[in-house]
Amino acid sequence: MPMVSMRQLLDEAAKGGYGVGAFNVNNMEQIQAIMEAARETKSPVIIQASRGARSYTNDRFLYHLMIAATEVYPEIPVALHQDHGNSPETCISAIEMGFTSVMMDGSLMADGKTPASFEYNVEVTKKVVEYAHARGVTVEGELGCLGGVEDGHGADLDALAHLTDPVQAIEFVERTGIDALAVAIGTSHGAYKFSKKPTGEVLVMSRIEQIHKNLPATHMVMHGSSSVPQELQDMINNYGGKMNPTFGVPVEEIQLGIKNGVRKINVDTDNRMAMTGAIRKVLMEHPEHFDPRDYMKPAREAMKQVVKARMLAFGQAGHAGDYEPIPLAEMIGYYKH
Ligand code: G3H
Ligand code: 13P
Ligand code: ZN
Which ligand has its closest atom nearest to the C-alpha of 21? Predict the structure, then answer.
């Protein structure tokens, strides 16, 4: 099966009342971990690459690994998504390469740090929507800003300072024509989201309910959705790592979001931690090992287990065979209506 449009994956998820995990990748083992988890759970899935991932891999390598994924796992509907595109140029280059979905993150300026004005956000997002929809490609926009900084991306704001305004969201969706809306509800990228198990004061799930009431047909996206489980923190720290105590987004809160219109859930940090914990364990227990396969194989397996658990929790498991993929060329017609 060719890579599919993210719009189709999300429309199907809305029909079925489930969410779809969007997992970040930077290398072959991560793509394999996700595709194996998708096969074992029969899940449609979104694989996403940040700008950092595209530059780390030299994105043609990444693209061809994705082609290999569609050949080896023909039964799995998979979308390839640009995560946090910082400018229309970044999104256009992803579309030209064959990505089936892009995020135009106009909540920040092109430096990926400075919060942007609403008018700037509308302008750049609309520009990407026009270009992308003419090619059948999906667009995610973001209104409001997440906290924290990851690999230079992010405003390093107090996560509560720029929550999505549910009324402004209506105007944003209407004026841009986006397929999916990333919302800011108090989460941050990376491992250090909350200093204790989050309550509704810091993880403002009520915003999701309000936005869903205002925009019942819009697919919402939760960024910064790693759960940062204690066992992964322990795995890293027990094998020589130094992570400070921290809390992520509990899976049950994500499930509440899914009941209220969240269809795409972004997870990167949990997978990074799973791989790093597994690698640390092998190298601590076997200091004599030096074949990268000795630690990459357990790392890939550890990531697969995390992705499988999320696929089951988000409800996408079992849905891979529900529908025939609509080719991007046909999606062009979908957007003309
Ligand atoms: O948005 C953040 C994702 O975790 C990607 O992070 O920019 O370090 O690749 P990155
Ligand atoms: P985490 O850092 O919580 O995994 O979030 C990833 C993300 O939002 C990618 O866009
Ligand atoms: Zn993100």
Answer: 2
pLDDT in tens, 101-144: 999 999 999 999 999 999 999 999 999 999 999 999 999 999 99
- Catalytic residue positions, numbered: 83
Judge if the beta carbon of residue 81 lies within 6 A of ligand 1. Answer: no
CA distance to 179, 248, 311, per residue, from 218 (Å): 7, 25, 22
Residues 321-331 pLDDT 10s = 999 999 999 99
pLDDT in tens, 11-57: 999 999 999 999 999 999 999 999 999 999 999 999 999 999 999 99
Instruction: Looking at the CA of 23, name the nearest ligand.
Output: 2
- Which CATH number does the domain housing residue 147 bear? 3.20.20.70
Split into its structural domains, the chain has a count of: 1
- Which atom from ligand 2 is nearest to the alpha carbon of 249? 3
In this structure, the number of other CB atoms found within 10 A of the CB of residue 217 comes to 9
For residue 50, which atom of ligand 1 is closest to its CA? 9
In the block, tokens 């997978």 appear at: 271
How many angstroms separate the CA atoms of 36 and 78, rounded? 12
- Do 274 and 298 touch, CB atoms closer than 8 A? no
Give the mean pLDDT of the chain: 96
Point out the ligand 1 atom lying closest to the alpha carbon of residue 51.
7
Kindly list the protein residues whose Cβ atom lies closer than 6 A to any atom of ligand 2. 24, 83-84, 189-190, 223-226, 266-269
Cβ atoms of 69 and 37 within 8 Å: the answer is no
Q: Is residue 1 part of a domain?
A: no
Residue 333 Cα to ligand 2 midpoint, Å, equals 32
Range of the domain at 210: 6-336
Q: Is residue 206 part of a domain?
A: yes
Centre of ligand 1 from the C-alpha of residue 334, in Å: 31
Centre of ligand 2 to C-alpha 264, Å, is 11
